[in-house]
Amino acid sequence: MISPVFTPTCAEMTIKKVCCLGAGYVGGPTCSIMAYKCPDIQVIVVDKSKQRIDEWNSDVLPIYEPGLDEVVKQCRGKNLHFSTEIETAIKEADLIFISVNTPTKTFGYGKGKAADLKYVELAARDIVETVESGFKIVVEKSTVPVKAAESISTILHSKQKAGVEFQVLSNPEFLAEGSAITDLLHAERVLIGGEQSPKGKLAIGALSWIYQHWIPEEKILTMDTWSSELSKLAANAFLAQRISSINALTPLCEETGADVSEVAKAIGKDSRIGSKFLQASVGFGGSCFQKDILNLVYICESLGLQEVAAYWNSVIVINDYQKRRFSLRIVHRLFNTVTDKRISILGFAFKKNTGDTRESAAIHLSKHLMDENAKLAIYDPKVDKQQILDDLSHPYISEDPSRVARLVTIHQSAYEAGQGSHALVICTEWDEFVKLDFRRMYEIMEKPAFVFDGRKILDHEALISIGFEVETIGKRFNQSANRLDDF
Q: Is residue 38 among the annotated active site residues?
């Protein structure tokens, strides 16, 4: 049950120093905005990776987010610090965020579905072994299963020293990569879960007070810990469900001649449904949606709720189907063979305005095309060469890393990647791809020249007028040069 926000007085609880364990996609941006909006609070982000900390202290940050550079440069060295001195930061902090990685398990019980909480546990153990005195608020910021905060609390209290007291809160993040700074500055809601005891409410109030420096009080929702944890998983599951729902309509649109964009527009006008997350594409990716849904599936299975687990798992099934179907469509349109054909992959990040490639549709599409011995020419404006090669060489994607060296080349521009290609495949909706000179691109490509728009961002009629053979998600074209067959 949601309860009113409790705001402590200075006499009850004053937060002067905040520490964040983990300098990743959540910890770095979140603490940067916290320092920006709370100039009287010292914020330190710590990580065991010296390389990552060095990057946060350099002119080239390890994370690309619009607006992040400006915030970090304004606060760094003043009340925002990045360090590998973990013990010192923990000892001095009044409030400690745990913002470490929680990947899906790749081994043992729960493999492929359950969250691996080893880094969360290690963080909790570091805290309890380091803290020597005082009242410490420990905030679970990583996305974790329901009752993970209870596990953290158990570890903290098992070795708690005399004169030390811990309160554990859940404060899930709701950041969309590519718009994280905007999401932090103008959050629709902030969730804080904790014990509904006097000291639990004191801790909740202290964290609420920090957010109230820039978030209206009515947007800060406080609740019990378990509801807070489940709300994060449920929110991502609902959003991913919408994407899979519209994607499930794309093959039907292609078969019947309907346009999925028009269908989405009509559906979105229904106030009960709304227009967000109804953009059909080659499939969703990123670090959250698939991981969180699989975690939800695992929890349901563990509790014997098999029908509920099957329902949420179907969201993943449709997403995998969409990626596989798009790659098969490429092979089909290229006369049922792509062996030794050069195919340009434009975009490798899972979405625009980020360099994150986790669960990117481009990775799985590339795998399918490499399985068919296609030669891939890849370009992404924000993903570096080594990241692309590492992703494609992962054992899950390629059992033979030498195949990647033989079939894949990385390029510095879309035109360089498109030179001599049989097809362009749009995998990420980068703005620069919309602005390409497609007449120039057509001239440098093999003929017939194909465009496969996996993000529905291009002017398809203009491309057809140039001479391209065009394919996109959820729409069938009548092209003068070659009318498309039903797929």
A: no
